[in-house]
Amino acid sequence: xxxxxxxxxxxxxxxxxxxxxxxxxxxxxxxxxxxxxxxxxxxxxxxxxxxxxxxxxxxxxxxxxxxxxxxxxxxxxxxxxxxxxxxxxxxxxxxxxxxxxxxxxxxxxxxxxxx
Length: 115
Description:
Strand order of the largest sheet: 2-1-5-4-3
Distance between the termini: 14 Å
Number of domains: 1
Shape: globular
Order of helices and strands: EEHEEHHE
Number of helices: 3
Largest sheet: 5 strands, antiparallel
Strand content: 15-25%
Number of strands: 5
């Protein structure tokens, strides 16, 4: 897995026990193949939207290089309309993300990424 992991979780308190990638088994996750935080942020250029929700990350582990943050629902909605602006190999990730979000909605979405 090279891309980010997107998580749907209505109860943010459940993330307290998340310490490593192996702990994701109990979460509703989508693992992207290529797209990273930077790719989403580039799709938002000029839209006056931030990919991450305001405030501190939900979880930050500098030792392991893991950060978990809420995704701004308005930014997510905008990004899903930008498939014409991504690299060919990234279109599949946006389509996969769009399909995964059906039935889950745009709220309570988080991104887990490594740095």
